[in-house]
């Protein structure tokens, strides 16, 4: 029996998937980076996550949230995809910092009104925060970003842990934080 209904051959027709989804991909830092850009945003979320358990592919999305408008969902403005985290944090964050510098300096025009935009927070878990700051990870020997204590590895019930002795701590100063030799 035949009908007059047209059934598409591909599910993307039903979903109205944009044709130019793959456009805008650039090679960056050993993987691929897609960056859409921002107009108004206050909170930035940066984290890495594995694409699936059995493979090395990772996604590092850049997301924003309009803090004063909680009904607006979190927006993805960029995604890095590679076999590991980006090997160059500057290359990974360059589109974002370029956008931010422009917006912080010039504001945003919405309905002929210039709106001042400010950054409220950058939100990242410990590994992403260490990556963004360019310091050793929290569980490394020099993992404390506030002092120069060298941690010792100790056995626990489930594997190893890093123990830091509390006492006479020599605090890191700005110059030592800028010198990667003292951190790594």
Automatic annotation (TrEMBL):
Top-rank taxon, per record = Eukaryota
Supply the name of the protein.
Transposase domain-containing protein
The organism is Anopheles funestus
The root-end lineage is: Eukaryota, Metazoa, Ecdysozoa, Arthropoda, Hexapoda
């Amino acid at each position: 029996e035949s009908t007059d209904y047209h059934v598409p051959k591909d599910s993307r027709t039903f979903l109205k998937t944009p044709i130019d989804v793959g456009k805008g991909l650039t090679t960056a830092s050993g993987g691929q980076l897609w960056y859409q850009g921002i107009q108004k945003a206050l909170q930035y979320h940066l984290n890495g996550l594995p694409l699936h358990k059995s493979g090395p592919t990772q996604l590092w999305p850049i997301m924003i949230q309009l803090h004063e408008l909680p009904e607006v969902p979190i927006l993805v403005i960029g995604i890095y995809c590679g076999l590991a985290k980006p090997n160059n944090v500057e290359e990974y964050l360059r589109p974002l910092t370029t956008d931010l510098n422009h917006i912080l300096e010039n504001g945003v025009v919405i309905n002929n009104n210039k709106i001042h935009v400010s950054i409220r927070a950058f939100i990242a878990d410990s590994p992403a925060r260490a990556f963004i700051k360019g310091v050793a990870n929290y569980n490394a020997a020099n993992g404390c970003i506030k002092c120069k204590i060298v941690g010792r590895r100790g056995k626990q019930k489930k594997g190893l842990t890093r123990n830091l002795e509390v006492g006479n701590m020599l605090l890191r100063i700005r110059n030592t934080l800028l010198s990667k030799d003292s951190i790594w």
